[in-house]
Design brief:
Largest sheet: 3 strands, mixed
Oligomer: single chain
Number of domains: 2
Shape: rod-shaped
Helix content: 40-55%
Length: 203
């Protein structure tokens, strides 16, 4: 609890003999100055202590909390929306979160993550090398990512009304290599070190 100047003066006065204030009026002024200094110091310490908590930090102190957690402030972002982003740190190396990141980039369907450490994926009656399970020698610290065919679908046909105009296109014959490069970069950036993975596009 922060003490006022008067409370600090009373505390300091109780720590010295009474004759200290009887000998000179100057001593009382000195102790009042000390009380004001302690009041200011305690206020500064309490304010700094409050900045160590995300919920009460602001400005540059809040930026430091974000920097520690690799959550930089967005351009023009205020403290109020920035705080919950710092608090809600996700472990991006787990497969469910990786799946969310990959799915956000897909043109078609959603990805399927198969963790090879799950013994239920192999050599059982329901999943013995079926279409969703692809054999591999890596059965620990590894996963496979299956994505649907990522060819961009055509938006129109070559009819008399939509004949190759600027708004319509006839699609792709193959998936874009740059698309898969982006997926690989996302996984490499967020996966745990020492974990192997494969990215496979379904036909």
């Amino acid at each position: 609890m922060a003490l006022t100047k008067a409370q600090w003066f009373a505390k300091l006065k109780s720590w010295v003999p009474a004759w200290v204030f009887q000998r000179s009026d100057r001593n009382e002024a000195i102790f009042l100055g000390m009380a004001k200094t302690f009041e200011q110091m305690q206020g500064d310490v309490d304010a700094h202590f409050a900045e160590t908590f995300i919920g009460s930090a602001s400005g540059e102190f809040l930026d430091l909390h974000g920097h520690e957690r690799s959550v930089p402030r967005l351009p023009g972002e205020l403290d109020i929306p920035y705080r919950p982003r710092i608090r809600t740190i996700k472990n991006s190396s787990n497969c469910p979160t990786l799946k969310e990141l990959v799915d956000s980039q897909l043109l078609n369907g959603e990805s399927q993550f198969i963790e090879h450490g799950d013994i239920n994926n192999f050599l059982n009656r329901e999943a013995f090398l079926n279409r969703d399970i692809i054999n591999t020698k890596y059965t620990y610290n590894a996963f496979t990512v299956l994505v649907d065919n990522q060819r961009r679908p055509s938006e129109s046909f070559l009819n008399r009304e939509d004949f190759c105009n600027r708004q319509d296109f006839i699609g792709q014959l193959e998936s874009s290599v740059s698309f898969f490069d982006r997926i690989v970069q996302i996984i490499n950036t967020n996966k745990a070190f020492g974990v192997f993975y494969r990215l496979i596009e379904r036909a």
